Amino acid sequence: MGAFADQIAAGMRGRGHRVQEVTAPVLLGLLFPHTHAAKWLGYVDQFFIFPPWLWLRARLLPKGSLCVLTDQALGPWLPWLCGRAHVVHCHDLLALEASFGLQPYHRISRSGRAYQRWIMQGFRYGRYFLSVSASTQAGLERYLPQLPRISAVLYNPLVSRFAVLPKEQAAAVVRQALPRMYEQSFLIHIGRNWYKNRLGVLAIWEQLHQLGFPQQLVLVGSFDPEVHAWLELRMHLRPWLHVLERATDQLVVALYNRAAALLFPSHAEGFGWPILEALACGCPVITTDRPPMTEVGGNAVITIPTAPPPPEPLDAWAREAAQKVKLVLTRSTAEQERIRELGYAQARRFQLEPWLDQLEFHYQQALALQERPTSAT
């Protein structure tokens, strides 16, 4: 979210707008650094000191200012903006859905449920929302007590660093990070959050081996207990698995360029960044046949059904998905090139400058909306 906010600030400054970035001050949290008390004092900074400070900042803004909340999780601060012109960027409602028990793959704590309700209460003051996908927009509108004045979709822009690299350059970067993989074919998966469905990735990969298509697998993200427990029962697959706790942007781009495919069977997403990034790098994508994955991937991706919810076993689903992966791996050279071109064309739909054009349009609309009186109902 920090990178997203920086992207907005840089883009608007580049178009001649004045931008002030406001975050919660760290005051009490500095009294006892590197201690458990610092965490709780930081909550005091965020939830007790920041709201009146934000209210004062909003009151002192010059006429014609726009307040932008770059993440829907900032919803609790919306009431403190005193009716100023505003836009709320909405990225995903997965945690909110989980708090209502609507995500069978994820359980949320009591405090987490309370916090999500607090965010939702803040939405009641919102008039202008921008969602990163139609799927996220639909989720938002389900939880609003009434529709806002404006609710629009503004897809995220692709960062320019995700692009095709010379083969030798990509191979050298990957070889340095994963020397024991050499030039072997591999699948890649990126993400560690619950909704990324890492167990589903592993189940598909295991079935692919059983089909006689042994592939290396690169997981970008921490080696969590769930993955460790799964692997303990399948130690014969351990030499084929590579887990990168962290990866630089340069390495991620190189991995996309070198991978046989991105395996991305997410339960849910707000947008689905890896799909777009992989397509821009010429990497085939296998993902779930539901939005927003289908929104981002279009006709350039291969889709598989959503994994069955627990406690249903994954075996039958994984076998079906592995057959789809097998088709991707056995494409002819001509078909591979055709699919890559579809991916490049899809990625070009998410360019930065058109996104900034739309962003500026919506911000101007939000300012104009504030100046118009609300119609009586």
Give the helix/strand layout.
Blueprint: H1 2-14, H2 36-59, E1 67-69, E2 86-90, H3 94-99, H4 110-123, E3 128-131, H5 134-143, E4 150-153, H6 167-177, E5 186-190, H7 198-210, E6 216-220, H8 225-232, E7 241-244, H9 249-258, E8 261-264, H10 273-280, E9 285-288, H11 293-297, E10 302-304, H12 315-329, H13 333-348, H14 352-371
Parallel strand pairs: 1-2, 2-3, 3-4, 5-6, 5-8, 6-7, 8-9, 9-10
Helix pairs in contact: 6-9, 7-12, 10-13
Characterize the structure shown:
With 377 residues, the chain is an alpha/beta fold. Helix content is 46%, strand content 11%. The protein is built from 14 helices and 10 strands. The strands form 2 sheets. The protein has a 6-stranded parallel beta sheet, sandwiched between helices. A 4-stranded parallel beta sheet has the order 1-2-3-4. Strand 5, helix 7 and strand 6 form a beta-alpha-beta unit. Helix 7 packs across helix 12 and helix 10 crosses helix 13.
Radius of gyration, in Å, reads 23 Å
In this structure, how is the largest beta sheet organized? 6 strands, parallel
Remind me, CATH topology of the largest domain? Answer: Rossmann fold
Average predicted local confidence, pLDDT = 90
Distance between the termini: 37 Å
How many discrete structural domains?
Answer: 2
CATH architecture of the largest domain: 3-Layer(aba) Sandwich
Structural class: alpha/beta
CATH C-level of the largest domain: Alpha Beta
CATH superfamily of the largest domain: Glycogen Phosphorylase B
- How much helix, percentage-wise, in residues? 40-55%
Largest beta sheet: what is the strand line-up?
Answer: 7-6-5-8-9-10
* Strand residue percentage: 5-15%
> How many E strands?
10
Instruction: Please state the overall shape, judged from the principal axes of the Cα atoms.
Output: globular
Regions with little confidence, pLDDT below 50 for 5+ residues: none
Number of helices: 14
The assembly state of the depicted protein chains is single chain
Q: What is the string of SSEs from the N terminus onward? A: HHEEHHEHEHEHEHEHEHEHEHHH
